[in-house]
Amino acid sequence: MNQEPALRIVTFDDIISEEEMAELLASTKVFNQSRDQGEANAFGMQEGIISSKRTSQTAWCQDTCKELPSYIAVINRIAEIVQVPSENFESMQFLKYHVGERYVEHHDMNNEKDNDFACGPRIYTFFLYLSDVEEGGETHFTQLNLSVKPRKGSGLLWPSVLSENPTVQDERTMHEAKPVLRGMKMAANVWVHLYDFSTPNHWACTGGGR
Ligand SMILES: O=C(O)CCC(=O)C(=O)O
Ligand SMILES: [Fe+2]
Question: ipTM score here?
Answer without folding.
Answer: 0.99
